[in-house]
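Recall that a protein's primary structure is simply its ordered list of amino acids. Everything else, from secondary elements to tertiary packing, is in principle encoded there. The following example makes that idea concrete.
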Amino acid sequence: MAARHSAVFKSIGGRYKRIRKRPRGKPNKDIYDCKVEVLGELGKLSEQGVVSLLYGDESHVCSEGYVPYGWQFPGEEVFVCCEKGYRFNCWGLVSRDNQCHWHTTQDSIDSHFVLERLEMLSFNIHKPTFIVLDNASIHTARIIKARIPVWQQRGLHLFYLPAYSPQLNIAETMWRHLKGGWLRPQDYCDDQTLAYAVNRCLANVGQGLNINFSPFNAK
């Protein structure tokens, strides 16, 4: 029955693919359209080498593992080793050409953490640099907003995405590749192995590990 349904779905153009998560809310259309237009222009300037455009986000890797699906064969037991209670937090900035700035920690990522990362980056840029962020409270905190004028003088600018628009942030794609593909089941066996694996993967973004980001799409 399942095979019959699959054939029918394919015959009418259906594809078996990952179901994306989207927020329930919708962005204000006018703000969304304006932000998308500006982001598109920044993307063009980045391709021309005039500016750097980095997409920022934080995520975490949990010791309980993240393997949504996989092939299994008769007589084979597929599982992920896990250790409860271990959480590895990640902060990353990534560009469409796989340039990546990252940091990992067992501590919580809060506005002070974000401030420190952006402060350090502001001293190490060589052209106008735009950081794309969502509107999470740790990105829009008072201490972050207060520092923006100083960063702008150094050539570092923050670009906030419209609300309810995670599809515009390619950093989300990097985390999906990290947890759903780059990390192996055996990497979850203990905390030290997982920490090493996460750092190994992020250090190899743009080298051994590359993401073919789709062209900018505002939909």
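The first strand starts at residue 52 and ends at 62. DSSP finds seven helices and five strands in the chain.
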